[in-house]
Design a protein that fits this description.
Keywords: Methyltransferase, Transferase. InterPro entries: Methyltransf_25, SAM-dependent_MTases_sf. This is SAM-dependent methyltransferase. It comes from Acinetobacter genomosp. 33YU. This protein has a seven-stranded mixed sheet with strand order 3-2-1-4-5-7-6, sandwiched between helices. The N and C termini lie far apart (36 Å). The protein has a single domain, classed as Vaccinia Virus protein VP39 (Rossmann fold). By secondary structure, it is α/β, with parallel strands linked by helices.
Length: 223
């Protein structure tokens, strides 16, 4: 059964659980920040799709006082948690929060970069084209998109190894079993080739991988 991201209990424990569930969770954000620094100018405006409880937003705010952010999430409970974290940092003036999916974003192309980290695998396959098109349309010319998602497992060795990695990170055996069940039932993953083709069909160019840990893979693409 899919997690209820509107549940206060789920949201409260999310930041601890996600670090056990996603291999290299913090390293992903370290890489994303490094890439953004290499391509963005001062006073950039970044779109964060599916901001969740605000970890990546908080991470970037602490490092970039001149960047502005728009953060969108369909879960009001998640969004409120992210707002609380930003208020604690006293950085609310840098962030615009939007409750909803990508269709709720402003129509103009105003973003220098977009992040969709651990989001698209929750988006149903028939909605994915519109999801990425919404992001594409809101980006300025030459802007970049960074993604990171669960891919459909082609190599069974990767899937077999994943629970051992998560056990080392702190998941229990029961939690690992639930993770494997959820991966089979609750996610809308694509193969690596299918993911790249979808981004290219949307209009993105120069789609290249920048990170991979077993069944998880990240891509950078340019409008």
């Amino acid at each position: 059964m899919a997690k209820d991201f509107n549940s206060p209990k789920v949201v409260e424990g999310y930041d601890v659980h996600i670090r056990k569930l996603i291999p290299g969770y913090e390293v992903i954000h370290l890489q994303v920040d490094a890439i953004l620094q290499s391509v963005l100018k001062p006073h950039a405006h970044i779109l964060i799709v599916g901001c969740g409880t605000g970890y990546e937003l908080e991470y970037l705010l602490k490092r970039h006082p001149d960047w502005k952010f728009t953060a969108v999430d369909p879960s009001l409970t998640m969004l409120q948690k992210a707002q609380e974290e930003v208020e604690l940092l006293d950085r609310s003036s840098q962030v615009t929060f939007i409750h909803g999916d990508t269709s709720a974003l402003p129509l103009e192309a105003c973003f220098d970069a977009a992040l969709s980290i651990l989001v698209a695998h929750f988006v149903a396959d028939d909605i994915k084209p519109a999801f990425f098109k919404d992001i594409y349309d809101r980006l300025k010319e030459k802007a970049v998109l960074l993604t990171y998602d669960l891919m459909t497992c082609i190599n069974p060795m990767q899937l077999k190894a994943l629970p051992y990695l998560c056990l080392d990170q702190g998941l229990t055996e029961e939690q690992c079993q639930k993770m494997l069940e959820r991966m089979a039932q609750d996610f809308f993953s694509l193969t690596t080739e299918g993911y790249i083709k979808l981004l290219e069909k949307t209009g993105f160019e120069s789609v290249q991988p920048y990170a991979q840990i077993l069944t998880y893979q990240g891509f950078i693409a340019k409008k």
